[in-house]
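Q: What residues go here?
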């Protein structure tokens, strides 16, 4: 029977239990090959890495005394952004995503 998860924390824990080493994210990283020519490689992060990284971010917020506060998150869509978002809401804080394309005056 499928059980509905009520928190992002529960979702991450259950996904890690079910898919642990499988890829949760794949993304391109720009760089150069051995000859110095531009090249992009594909990197991936597993469900275990996603859960662990999110938990580390939550712990960092707690260590800074920011747990339970409103946390603005701004930046391009990336693995780091997702970890920041999950880690923020996992720490019982309120994530406030801001559009990275907004003019400075609007932010």
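A:
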């Amino acid at each position: 029977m499928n059980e509905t998860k009520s928190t992002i924390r529960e979702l991450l824990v259950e996904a890690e239990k079910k898919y642990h080493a499988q890829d949760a994210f794949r993304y391109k990283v720009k760089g150069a090959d051995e000859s110095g020519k531009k090249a992009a490689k594909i990197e991936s992060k597993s469900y275990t890495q996603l859960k662990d990284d999110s938990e580390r971010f939550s712990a960092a917020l707690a260590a800074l005394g920011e747990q339970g506060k409103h946390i603005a998150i701004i930046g391009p869509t990336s693995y780091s952004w997702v970890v920041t978002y999950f880690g923020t809401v996992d720490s019982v804080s309120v994530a406030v995503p801001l559009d990275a394309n907004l003019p400075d005056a609007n932010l």
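A: Context that may help when evaluating the design: The chain has three helices and four strands. The chain has one domain: 8-98.
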